[in-house]
Every structure is written in structure tokens, then in C-alpha cells.
Amino acid sequence: MTMDPIKIAILAMGGQGGGVLADWIVDMAEHAGWWAQTTSVPGVAQRTGATIYYVELLPEDAIKAAGRPPVLAMMPTPGDVDIVLAAELMEGGRAIQRGLVTPDRTTLISSLHRSYAINEKAAHGNGIADPNKVIEAGKQAARRFYCLDLQALADEARSVISASMFGALAGASVLPFSREDFENTIRRAGLGVDASLDAFSRGWRAAETAPPSPAPVDLQRPIPEVPLTAASPRTQRLLDEVRAQFPVQAQAMMVVGLRRTLDFQDLRYADQYLGHMRDIHQLDRQFGGEAKAWALTCAAARYVAVAMAYDDVIRVADLKTRGTRDDRVRMEVQAKADQLVYATEYMHPRLDEICGILPARMGRYIENSPKLHRLLNPLFRKGRFLKSGTLSGFLMLYALSGMRRFRRVTLRHQVESQSMAQWLKLVSDTAHHDYDLAVEVVNCRRLVKGYSDTHERGNSKYQRLGLAASQLLGRPDAASQLRVLREAALADTHGDKLDLLMRDIVASPT
Amino acid sequence: MAERSFKKEVQQLRIGAGEEFRGEGILAVTKALLQCGVGYVAGYQGSPISHLMDVLADAQEILDELGVHFEASASEATAAATLAASVMYPIRGAVTWKSTVGTNVASDALANLASGGVTGGALIVVGEDYGEGSSIMQERTHAFAMKSQIWLLDPRPNLESMVKAVEDGFQLSEASNTPVILQLRIRGCHVHGRFIAKDNKRPPLSLGQALDNPVRDTSRIVLPPASFQHEHEKIQARWPAAIKYIKENKLNELFDGEHGELGLILQGGLYNGVIRALQLLGLADTFGNSRIPLYVMNVTYPVVDDEIRSFCEHKKAVLLIEEGQPNYIEQNLNTILRQAGMDTALAGKDVLPLAGEYTTAVIRDGLQAFLSKHSPGLLHEVADAPAASKPLMKEQVVQFQRKPTVVPAPSPSLANVVPPRPAGFCTGCPERPIFAALTLAQDKLGEHHIACDIGCHLFSILPPFNLGATTMGYGLGASSAAAFNVPSSKRPISIMGDGGFWHNGLSSGIGNAVFNKYDGVIIIVDNYYSAATGGQDVLSSRARNATKSTNNPIEAAVRGVGVKWLRTLDRTYDVAKVQATIEEALTTPEKGPKVIIAQSECMLNKQRRTKPIFAQAVKSGKRAVKERFGVDPDVCTGDHACIRLSGCPSLSVKESEDPLKEDPIAYVDNTCVGCGNCGEVAHAAVLCPSFYRADIIHNPNRWDLLKAGMRRSVIGFLQRRRQTQLARQAL
């Protein structure tokens, strides 16, 4: 008979049902003749914050033998926890960080899924934490580490994660209770029993069949395949040229680039893309790209396509009226076959965007006329709600998307083409002096994205980086410094950090 | 309507003598109040005692049966003043709140109450919001007990001890004519345990009977000369009476141990932590048998000198384990030992941290430091003892004077990996758009001084909004900007919730602003509930409440105290309108306070209210439309500006399937409640056209289906046509 309590810590975020899970464990233990104590510090953590529930269990027999009730702890102590349940991967990481997981005794059962913290989501670029660092740490810190996507299992059962976690706890066989004990607890709770039991059994099976040590998450994004054949002889020609004339490293991205330019405009536009790429590749060959795995061509394969397929009103209207889009919306909102789904689009074109799709001269004229501006601006002050599933809404968007045939004469196209030409010239000029810096200049295009204000802010940062590139030219560390600046540009909205660093870096000669 | 329903738990309040109660600590205390024949209970909700209030609100029927009056007070000051009913009449009264914030608010009434003294037992149950999970300044209620001479109970954190403390508290209060504070720590409030119940008791004298036979005794009223008398009475009569009662009834507990030359003195609330720490050092077992004697102060004020002296007698050294600062008890003990001429060494904050929560690990380290100084042999002895004679323990005894080595530093380090998870607004929260609008208004008009308040809206201080400079206390948002009533190019902005407004903000904030011709902007966030404390009703709540008067609009109150510039926004999700209103308030030439009431129902409560109704309608085959939001992944460019202006938990990011996009794109997950904030923000901030609202029609009627069929045929034709064109040049 054990005289030591079993100690369980549950780490969860507000609203994840950590309290429910703790209550289930208590209820199960008490029904099985155990003494159970649980504590928590909900407080403001109820609202999306992280919190810990703590449970201790002791057999009643031991208490009878001792003749007095036990004195159980109110909080987990680092190094003194038998089971840690984490309702999310980073919460598992937090448990490890807090020292609650130790190799001599702790079974760590963590969900593999991620619920991103606000800082990860709000990052200007990619702020997502590396899951494999937690998995690696868990493997070292825990006696046994179960890392299972318990959220997905709960979703499959249309239940909640507390149920699949309860199942994983049962499947890990670390508590002296039978599967029936677990399942009866869910039945006693009496809410959504069938779905909970389904999620429970999925969690149970996942833990039961889990590998001794969790595998790392594959973070490699899938590389698109380079097809052998295209739909028409004219596109086949493009494909053949990519396969024959360009380095294999760049081919996949170039196929994506061709697809995007085709999708965005037409075959001639794709041809144009290929033309730009030919120039870049030539440059690459000239300045020793072969030794550097064709870094310049590879980087340009993406950003030339992004720059050419800029986001304008025509493009948005096109994307919003496709049949595949309707299907995707239905899937995303999990609509059943007998339900109808209508989308209302939130669009807020400003006068600038409208000028953008006018013929260049007309658009410019309006832009440069304060009087017209004053007259027309009020029309575009408010956002529009467009029902794309009704005939009027759809036809309007459809007609707008049909304007792609006039795209080449629009003001926006002229602006974008000029900007791209300048950028390509900067790349070319830079490559003549500093290959690595030229690659970085290509990558700086990453900043240009979004619509309206966002686009302007990104563009302004990109312009500053272009300036920095020309100022850095000639310095041995130019490429690495530009990379530092590019990362700084992603730190805040207006590029304050970028300005600060630019002053330092550009001013200080190395 | 409170956030949690306690209808089920309430039934446990009915159980009689001999039956076992199982549940949360705070529920046990509630049951104990009824067992003690309490005549009335009042209080103001707040973690960790919200449940006490919520349970009693749900237990109206049982209270009526027993003749117990229950009141949700307007503030802690109201609650404390309510205890005045026990001044003249032998009626037991209990009040409750979150401490120390609530005690601060209540202290005027408490001081008056303590001065005149009480006839009936007066118990103040405070939830000490201290340590991990706390949301308030870290201070001790102890100081209030000392300054007003109110007795302070800090029982061991198990249900039996807490229930006993309620009984002891009433009796001690009556024996010494002094109010008593029962201090419960967060974890104690939420601990699940058990105790054997007693029968509930009707109050021997009811409030009604007291009203029928009024009593008046001027010697109890705080006015000179009586008030001077009170001060002496406290020392000469009430204190000795309290000490006598505490000693005779053994409120403080002594646990012996074999090592009589040492001793531990501790606050009752720390008992479980101390036992676990002793266990970890091999000096105690699971059942509380300790090798070192313990003196457990279930009464932490007043200190019983005799008991301290007799415990310390013949001891080489004692360790006082006293959480929080200043070290009031340690100072007191030093005086006692010094005056008695005893040479027992007293350790305390020399081996334990001066400030901060005393977690098990902290106590363990402190004990180790104490023992290594005063009885190093003990640590060795335990380590060397043969296994059979050692108390059962899992952990190895740690090396002398060394930090425990059981926790290996995880490698690779997670310090820069695991993200912080600050509390934030719930999915669909109607307060989020207010702060999005405020952010946009500031983008346009520049940064302003923003004074915040207590309530959910305080999350605006945290990411992603990062708005607000100060928070001075509940309902004090407007008053905390009072100094800035000076000419400037920018007006100060202050925030106040409906909970804080009715708590005191109407007079301390709005009334003050009107009176002093304040020229700033005051935003009142009205979400229909006291949401942060668990969704309790307030005066302006829209719900019908059988026992309360609701539906008293804030607008009328604000006008009533003389505000002229007032805008009421009845849909906070209209970000553009909120923004325009804020901008107008900041720039209008009109003088005097500019008050904006921004109102929309707390989404947590709304969902709880409407979800079952919706589900029922769908189930019964009725046509019903559900809204939720989505992001077109091919339109989203992964800039995340929408997230920086929203922070909604259901608005997240995911890896883009488009190889051309490097950064993760936004997406709305299935927890979306369709509030519309993200779309409105995208509109107001002119972000991007990737947001859409999906209206999902459940059980469409024939007209719906007819329309859908017609639309489908036209739209489908055009879509197929375009698809064919695209496919022709596919790659």
C-alpha cells in the first residue's frame, strides 16, 4: 500500500476545461475509494491566460491505517510531480520550464496542438514558436512523454479536449483505475456523454499505441512538384523552358510563379515572368551563383511572382467569385449538406484603389486633383458589405474580376510595374558588386504586402531598406546588416526599430 | 445571472448533521455560515470569494426557509456597513469580499464597526488574493486587523478547519464584542475536500424582530466621548476577553514532535505547505506527523503571548513562517521573547524571503537554511537514518546547504520558446472593438493619456492593445485622471466599467468631473454585468431578476448628476462609429466632461443565454441563421494587422498553403461567435478585403431553397465558364 499521494498537475488555458478534467479525476478517485484533493488559482486566468490545476490522490485504506486525514499540498512542487497533463504544447513546455517534469518520475501527457499566444499571432512576420524545442525538452525531462494531438481527437468526436485528455490519461496506464472507472466518471457527469466517451476512447487509443518517444514535427513546407506536362502546348513551352534552362533548385518555385502569373493575368504575363527570371538567372550565372546554390534565382522565383501578382481590386473580386471558394467557405464553417451558406464580403476600397483600376491617365488626374478628391472621397469613406452569394452582389464582383483584360492599362499596373523595374534594377546593380547583398535586396520584397494602409506601410519600409542597401554597398558585412535591418522592419508597425537601427548601422563604418 | 450556476451545489447546503459534505472550500464556508445560525449575509463579489456570493444568490429558497437575509451589496463599504445590524442586536452577521482591495474600500465602515464593538457575532470573510493567480496589489489584510483591532483568523486550509474557523469566529466575536476577519487564501477557497456537516440553524433573533423592538445605546456610537472610551475598552476589556477565549478553546494548535529543542511557528493557512516542505526534507509524513514541533496560529491576530512563551520555552531555536510583508508577527514575537528574557533564537525572514508567496519550494529552502544554522545534525541524521525508520517519502534528502538538485535544467532551454500568455478579452467580447476604435483614434489624433480601471476592460493594458497608463482602483478610472483637468492640446481619456460605475464611479468619477468642470473624456464600458467577477447583475443589467431591481440605465444616472455631453453607443462592434465618437469627444469645443457609454452584452453571458435557445430552435426544425467569420486564405497576405487590432482568441494564424507566402496567414477558427469585430476592424482600419461573414441557414424554408436554386444556376454557370478558361492554360 502506498503512503505517498499521487501528484498530478494540469496545465491549461482559460476555457479549455482544465477544471472539468480535475473534477473528473477527483470524482473517479473518490468513487474508487480514494481520498482526493484538488486546488486551483483561476483568477483572471479564466480569460485566455494560462493556469494550473493540482490534484493529489491517496487510497482511503492508507488513511484508515493512519487513523487521521492526510495533509496534502496546495500546489505542485518542482521535482515532486508524478503526472503532468498539458492541454496545449506550449503549456507542456511551461510545465517543463517550471521544473514540474522530472526524468525520475514524471509522465508528461501533452497535447501536440498549438493555440498560439497573442505575441505569436501579432508578429509582423512569422512569430510561431518552434514546437520541436518543446518536444526535445520533453523527451529529456520526462520519464515518459506522450505528445498527442488531443485537440484533433476531440474535434473528430465533436467533443472537448478535456475528454480526449482524460482518455490519454487512462491510456497511459499511470493511474490505478480501470478504463471502466474512467468511463463511468464521464457518464456520471451526464453532459454530452456520448461525444465525450468517443473523444475519451480516441485519446485512450492514441496513448495506448503511442511510440515510446514522440517524433519531431515536420516543419518543412511541402515543395510543389514540377510537372512533366501542361494543359496546352503554349503552357508546355513555358514548363519546358523552366525544366531545361533553370537550375533544379529554383524550378519548383518557378512553376508556382508561372501558375500565379497565369492565374493573375494571362499567358503573356507568364511569359513576362519567365523573361524577368531569364535576366535574373543570367545575372546569377555571371556573378558566381552556381557556387551559392543559385540563391539569387531561387529568391527571385518567389518575389518576382509576388511583385507581378500584386493584390488589386480585380484580383480580390476574382478570388471571391470562384466556385472553389464557395466550397471552401462551406467546409470552413462546417456547413452540413442541407444548410445554405451566404458570404458577406467586408470590402473597403478607397478612392486610391478605384483610381488604381482606372486607365493610368484618368486615375492620375483624379489623384492629382484636390477638388475631385474632395468630391469623390466621401463615397469611399465607409466600408461596403457585399453579399457575394446573391445575384446582384455576385454579378458585380464577377464583372469587376472580368476587368482583368484591361489591367495592363490601369494606373495600379503602371505603379507596380515601375516599382518592380526599380527593384530589379537595384538587384542587378547590386549583384555587380555584392552577390549576397543582391540576394538580400530580393528578400526585402517580403515587406511589400497587404492592402491600403498596410501596403503603404510595408512599401515605405521596403523603400527604406532599398535606401539602406545602396548605403551599405561596399561594406564587407553589407548582406548580413541588411538582413538585420529586414528583421527589424518586422518588429513594429511603423518601422521605428528599423529607423533606429538604420541610423546606427548605416552611420557606423565597420 | 452569474457565470456559473450553483443550483446543484446548493443542495449540499441542505444536508444535515452527520452527513458528509464534499466540495470546494468556499462552499463549505457558506454551509458553515448556515450551521452557525447567521442572520444575514452581504458582500461584494470578486475572486476568490465570488462563489460564496453566487451560491447564496442561487440558494434564495433555502435562505428564505431559514429566515436568513442575503444581499449583494453595492460595494465592500456597503457590505461592511451592513454589519451595523450586529452592533445593537444579538444577531450574527457575515460579510465577504476580495481582499485587500475590498478591505481598502470597506475600511471606513470597518474602523467604525471595530471602535463601537458588536453584540452579535460579526464575521468578515475575506478572500486573500495573494500569490500566483492574483490580479491585485500584493498586500496583507493583517495590517487592517492590527490598526482597527479586529481579530484575524487564518485557518489551516482543509474544509474541517475552515468550517470550524467560522464557528470559532462567531463565538470569538461575541465573547470579545469585536468583529472578526476570517482570511481565506486563494487555494484554500478553491480546495476540494470534505467535512462532516451539522444541521442548519435559524437565527435565534430575526432582523424583523429586531426592527420591531429597536435598541439604542449611545456608548456604542463613534462620537466623543464614547470614541475615546472605545480605544481603552479595546485594550482593557475586549483584548483580554479574546485572548481568554482563544486559549480556552485552543483555537491555535500545537503539534508535538520528537525534536523538542526546535520549533516551527506558522500561520494556519501555510500549514499544508509547511508539512509538504517537511516531507520533502524527510521530517514529516503524509499525515502531518512532524519530527519538529509545530505551533499553528489559526488566529494570527492577536498573538497569544502565553502560548508563544510556553512553546518557545526550553527551545534552542524556533522558525516563524510568516508570509507577506511587513513581518508584523515576527516583530511581535521578538517583543514577547525579549520581554520575557528568553534566549530562544527566533528565525524568520532571515532564512525566508522578505516578500513573495511562500510556495512549498520556498518553505523547504527556508527550513533547510534554518536547520543548517540551528541543527545541522538533523539534516544529516535524516539522510543517514536507515530506510525503515525514515518517514515515507519519495524524494532524497537534499545535501546540506545546497539547493535541491532534483530539477535538472531542461535542455535545450525553453526560455525563449514558451510564449507568455497574458489574460485577454474572450472570443466575441464587446469591449475589444472599443479598444480597437481607441487605437485607431489615437493613430489619427496622436497618443493620449489613458487612465484605466478595474474590470475585464483592464486587459486593454496587455497585448495586443497596450493601452493605458494607470489603474488606481475599482471605479476610479475617471477620478484617476482628475489632476489632468488643465488646458492642453490633448484631453485625457479614462475608462470605467459598469461594475465600477455603480461601485463608486458615479460619484467619485462622474460627479467629481461635473463638479470640477473636468474637460476630459470618460468612456463607460457597459456590458450588462459585473463581468470580471463572474457575470453578476448590477443596477443597469438588462436581465429580469426576481430579487433585484435591474434595468436602471447608466445614461439616466449620468445625466442625473449633470453631464451635458453624453453619447450612448448601443453596438460597440460598430468600430467606425465608436472611433468617430471618441474622436468627436477628443476634439469638440464643448467644455465639461465628455461621457461615452459604450454598451453591448458580455459575450460570455450572452452565449450562455442564447446558445441553448438557438440549439433548441434548430432541433425543432425552425429556420435559424448562425453567423460566423472567415478569412479568404488566398486574399490574406499574412501581415497580421487585423490581429494586432483585435486579439480575439478565435482569430488565429496558420501556415499558408501558398508557397509564395512566407508568413502564416490569418484564419478564424470554429470558436467564432460571429460578433463581427474582425470585419468591422478591417473596415474601419482599411486593412484588407479578406474577411467575410458566413450566414449559415439552418432548416432553410422553401423560399430560401427556391432563391438558392436560382442563384446557383446563374452563379454556377459563370463559375464553371471561368474555371474552363483557367483550366485551358493550366500548368
From TrEMBL, chain A:
Q: Which residues form the DUF6537 domain?
A: 254-464
Annotated ranges, domain Pyruvate/ketoisovalerate oxidoreductase catalytic: 14-203
Recite the UniProt keywords alphabetically: Oxidoreductase, Pyruvate
EC category: oxidoreductase
Q: Give start-end ranges for the coiled-coil region(s).
A: none
Query: What InterPro entries does the record tag this protein with?
Result: DUF6537, IorB_Oxidoreductase, Pyrv/ketoisovalerate_OxRed_cat, Pyrv_flavodox_OxRed_cen
Source taxon at top rank: Bacteria
Q: Does the keyword Mitochondrion apply?
A: no
Pfam families membership: DUF6537, POR
A Gene Ontology molecular function term for this protein is: indolepyruvate ferredoxin oxidoreductase activity
| Enzyme Commission number(s) from the entry | 1.2.7.8
Cross-referenced NCBIfam families:
PRK08312.1 (NF006179)
This one is known as: Indolepyruvate oxidoreductase subunit B
Native species of this protein?
Pollutimonas thiosulfatoxidans
Automatic annotation (TrEMBL), chain B:
By its UniProt entry, which CDD domains does this protein fall under? TPP_IOR_alpha, TPP_PYR_PFOR_IOR-alpha_like
Judging by the UniProt lineage, the source's domain of life is Bacteria
Oxidoreductase found in the keyword field: yes
Its Gene Ontology molecular function terms?
Answer: metal ion binding; oxidoreductase activity; thiamine pyrophosphate binding
Q: Which UniProt keywords apply?
A: Metal-binding, Oxidoreductase, Pyruvate
Q: Name one GO biological process term.
A: small molecule metabolic process
Would I find Secreted among this entry's keywords? no
Q: PROSITE patterns attached here?
A: 4FE4S_FER_2
The record's annotation in InterPro entries points to: 4Fe4S_Fe-S-bd (IPR017896), HACL1-like (IPR045025), Pyrv_Fd/Flavodoxin_OxRdtase_N (IPR002880), THDP-binding (IPR029061), TPP_enzyme_TPP-bd (IPR011766)
Return the Gene3D superfamilies for the record: 3.40.50.970
| Coiled-coil parts of chain | none
Pfam family for this entry, one:
TPP_enzyme_C
- The 4Fe-4S ferredoxin-type domain covers 627-658
Indicate what this protein is called per its UniProt record: Indolepyruvate ferredoxin oxidoreductase
Species of the source: Pollutimonas thiosulfatoxidans
